[in-house]
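Ticket #4471: structure export looks truncated?
Reporter: QA, pipeline team
Priority: medium

Steps to reproduce: submit the single chain below to the structure queue and open the exported record.
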Amino acid sequence: MSVLDNWDQWKNFLGDRLHQGESQGLSHGAVNDLATEVGDYLAKQVDPKNEQERVLADLWSVASQDEKHAIASVMVKLVENNGTR
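Actual output as written to the record:
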């Protein structure tokens, strides 16, 4: 089973990566920029595996670059309390 198959597992995975980046000294701005790049990659390369990912993919497909950055920033906030520490 892929981490993308389950929304809670995906949030935990992202939370783990967020905490890893922060522990290695990435700034909040750098984390948000990286999240935007990951969003672009996922939108181009990965088919959504659940309803939540489909909503995000649909929003991403019509968003401007500023809106994509905002979506990525909100996802960072969403997963800040997920994952292991």
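Status: closed, not a bug. The export was complete when the record was re-opened. Leaving a note from the reviewer for reference: The longest helix spans residues 28-45.
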